[in-house]
Amino acid sequence: MTYRAAVIGCGGISRFHTRGYLASPGVEVVAASDPSDEARARYAEEFGIETFADPEEMLDAVKPDLVSVCTPNPTHAPLTIMAADKGVRGIVCEKPMAMTLPDADAMIAACENAGVRLIVSHQRRLEQSFMVAKALLDSGAIGRLLRMEASIGDWDLMSWGTHWLDIFRFYNDDQPTEWVFGQVQVSDPKKAFGHSVERSGIAKIGYANGVEAIYQGGGVAHGMSNRLFGTEGVIEVEPCCPEGIGGPIRLLNATSGGWKIVDIPDEDHIQQPFAREMATFIQCLESGAAHPLDARLAREVLAQIIGIFESSRSRRPIKFPVQIEDNPFMSMLEDNEK
Question: How far apart are the first and last CA of the chain?
Fold first, then answer.
């Protein structure tokens, strides 16, 4: 069969979703929506696809099988829930899946009740750099995993940190979280994807199997880096640059003779993960298999972020599972404005 896909939001990230669909056999992108006349015009000029100002009008008119939600973060929950009620088969929501845990739970419940598959676009799991590093890790190249580290300069937890926390879980076989501890800068926030975000932050995460992870973002970080420490060695991952060119992986262990360069396949390391995301989504819809970007996995990443914010607010470690109703970072901002 041919799957009909529609995209809600015509901003920059929508291009990657659209190209990902177009690269998947048996998928046709039939429409996109955005309230901005300018955004719709740019999208239509690039893809030659019909556009709508209102997403609900679009879904009613074209009746798609698949929907991508590529809108500002605070709108992810209501738009996903609305799409689930329209009879679609699958929804791809941009990360982070929601601003609060109750919203994430409502999204999952709405999709499960409607028989809709929901995945969240942590597509970095499908980037060659990280897949090769994971294969090295699984092969025992550095022994048993002990600690993971990652940093991202000039970005926040909700925008890019969410990728790192998901990659940590990917490396560590989605082990349950036991605790988080962190601090984020509440003063002088900046704007990203429709809401205020921290300028810098640092966090430590503990998992059920004893592995720990350290994240640094924003002003306390520089560039992008990723290291995995094991009982018998170290793996360094240099993720893709903005141009989509993947950097090398470096391996150090007892037999490597110093740092050894591990090459990764040559491809567009930004666009290709989206193509894999969409292609595997179709496969999972047809087979019923679990998807590596399932919404329940993304919900755990959001719980870690909310826990880090709560740790910063309460100035204590946060044990899991967490039951936090608000977004502590946004609440701290509101308190500062009083």
Answer: 56
Beta strands in 34-144 (DSSP E): 51-52, 66-69, 90-93, 117-120
Sign of the CA dihedral with 266 first, then 268, 271, and 275 last: negative
Helices (H), 4-93: 12-22, 37-47, 55-62, 76-84
Quote the percentage of the chain above a pLDDT of 70.
Answer: 96
Going by C-alpha positions, the residue among 127, 132, 82 that lies closest to residue 107 is 82
Query: DSSP string spanning 259-322?
Result: -EEE----S-TTHHHHHHHHHHHHHHHHH-PPPTTBHHHHHHHHHHHHHHHHHHHHTS-EESS-
pLDDT in tens, 127-142: 999 999 999 999 999 9
Q: Which residues are CB-contacts of 273 (< 8 A; sequence separation ≥ 6)?
A: 123, 124, 125, 126, 127
Q: Rounded distance, CA 62 to CA 89, Å?
A: 14
pLDDT band at residue 199 using 50, 70 and 90 as cut-offs? confident
Q: Which domains does the chain have, with CATH numbers?
A: 3-123+273-292 (3.40.50.720), 124-268+300-319 (3.30.360.10)
Nearest C-alpha neighbor of 94 from the set 108, 74, 113, 117: 74
Mean pLDDT of 61-72: 98
Question: What does pTM read for this prediction?
Answer: 0.95
Parallel/antiparallel/unpaired status of strands 90-93 and 66-69: parallel
Residue 172: both structure tokens together: 């560590």
- Strand 177-184 relative to strand 200-207: parallel, antiparallel, unpaired? antiparallel
116/128 Cα distance (integer angstroms): 29
Report the alpha-carbon angle 195-197-199, nearest 5: 150
Rounded Cα distance between 125 and 316, Å, is 30
294, 127 contact by CB (below 8 A): no
Q: What is the largest CA-CA distance in the chain?
A: 62
Question: CB–CB of 128/264 below 8 Å?
Answer: yes
Q: Per the structure block, which two tokens stand in for 4?
A: 């009909």
